[in-house]
Specification:
binds adenosine monophosphate; alpha/beta; 14% strand; binds manganese (II) ion; seven-stranded mixed β-sheet; 288 residues
Length: 288
C-alpha cells in the first residue's frame, strides 16, 4: 500500500541541541525511514540547519528550516515550533541568543543544586555531553546515566530535573508575544509543540490557544511522537473546534529512543487541516 501524500515529519532534533545525531546523519536517517519532508527544530538554535539542508539536497528530501522555542506562559514552559523560518533573520537570532544565555546560566545553577544534593561534577559532565554546544537538561540526564547514578534518562528527569526535585530550576524563557514575533519576522509559521504534554486542563489549554492565536499562532501538533492515541483524539477535536491548522512531528532525538522511529507517524485525523496545505505555508523558501 502506497501513501496518498508525502510523508511529513515536522519536528526533530540534532546534536545542535539535545539530539544525538549530527544534522546530516539525522537527514539520512529520515530519508532511510521514508520521510519526504523533514523539519529540523532544535531547541532555541538554528545551528544545524545549514548542514541539514546540504544533506537534504544530496538525498532529494525537502528540509524545512525550523526551531523549537522555549516559552514561559503563566509560569509554565511551553514549546513553540517556528516552521519555515529564515535562519538569517536578525530578530529571530537576537531572541534565540537571549534564550541560550539563560540556558548557560541555568546549566551552572542546575550543577550547583545537584552538587548541594550530593552529586558533584554534573555541570562539567553535562558540558562534556553537549560537546561545547548549548547545555540542556537532557545532557545532565545523559551524564547521570553514563556515570551509573540513575538507570534511565526518564528516571533522571523524574528524580532530579522536574519541579520540586533537587536539580530543578524554573524557566525564564521568551514571552509568547516575543517568540511569535520572532517567528513572524523570520517568515515562519508558529505551531504549538506536543500540546497534550503540558498537563493543562482543557479550559487552560483553550485559553492558551486563544492567546497563541491572538499573537499570530496558527497551528498545533495533533500527531506527536509523545502523544498517546487518546491524546491524538483529544487534540484532533481541539484542533477542529478551535480552527487551528494541524501538524505532525516525531520529536525524534536519536536512535536510542526505540519507541520513536522516523517515517512511522500516522496520518492526520479527518477534519484537521494540515499546516502544509495552508496558503500561509512558506513554500517558496522551502524549494531546496
Ligand atoms: P530543556 O529544554 O533543557 O529544559 O529540556 C527539555 C528536553 O528534555 C525536552 O525537549 C526533552 O528532550 C527532554 N525531556 C523532558 N522531559 C523528559 C522526560 N520526562 N524524559 C525524558 N526526556 C525528557
Ligand atoms: Mn529535547
Ligand atoms: Mn518540546
Ligand atoms: Mn522537541
Amino acid at each position: 500500500m502506497g501513501r496518498m501524500s508525502a510523508n511529513y515529519d515536522l519536528h526533530s532534533h540534532s546534536l545542535a541541541s539535545d539530539g544525538t545525531l549530527a544534522p546530516a546523519e539525522l537527514v539520512a536517517a529520515a530519508h532511510a525511514g521514508g520521510v519526504d519532508v523533514l523539519a529540523l527544530t532544535d531547541h532555541d538554535t538554528t545551528d544545524g540547519i545549514a548542514e541539514a539542508i546540504q544533506s537534504a539536497r544530496r538525498l532529494g528530501l525537502q528540509l524545512v528550516p525550523g526551531v523549537e522555542i522555549s516559552v514561559s506562559w503563566q509560569s509554565q514552559t511551553i514549546h513553540v515550533l517556528g516552521l519555515g523560518i529564515d535562519p538569517a533573520c536578525a530578530e529571530l537570532q537576537a531572541g534565540l541568543s537571549g534564550l541560550r544565555e539563560f540556558r548557560r546560566w541555568r546549566a551552572r545553577e542546575i550543577g550547583r543544586r545537584l552538587a548541594k544534593a550530593g552529586i558533584p561534577g554534573c555541570y562539567e559532565g553535562a558540558c562534556r555531553q553537549a560537546q561545547g554546544r548549548i547545555v540542556g537538561r537532557t545532557h545532565f540526564a545523559h551524564h547521570l546515566v553514563a556515570e551509573g547514578h540513575v538507570r534511565s534518562v526518564r528516571d533522571v528527569f523524574k528524580r532530579y530535573l522536574v519541579n520540586n526535585k533537587p536539580g530543578f530550576v524554573s524557566g525564564k524563557w521568551a514571552t509568547l508575544e516575543d517568540a511569535l514575533g520572532w517567528i513572524e519576522h523570520a517568515g515562519g509559521l508558529a505551531v504549538v509543540a506536543h500540546p497534550a504534554r503540558y498537563r493543562m486542563t482543557a479550559t487552560k489549554l483553550r485559553r492558551f490557544l486563544d492567546d497563541f492565536r491572538a499573537c499570530g499562532g496558527v497551528g498545533m501538533e495533533v500527531i506527536s511522537g509523545s502523544h498517546t492515541r487518546d491524546n491524538v483524539a483529544t487534540m484532533a477535536a481541539l484542533c477542529r473546534n478551535q480552527d487551528m491548522l494541524a501538524s505532525c512531528g516525531s520529536d525524534y532525538h536519536g536512535p536510542e529512543n526505540p519507541w520513536i522511529k522516523l517515517g512511522q507517524l500516522p496520518a492526520l485525523p479527518a477534519g484537521c487541516p494540515p499546516v502544509w496545505e495552508s496558503e500561509r505555508w512558506p513554500v517558496a523558501e522551502l524549494t531546496n
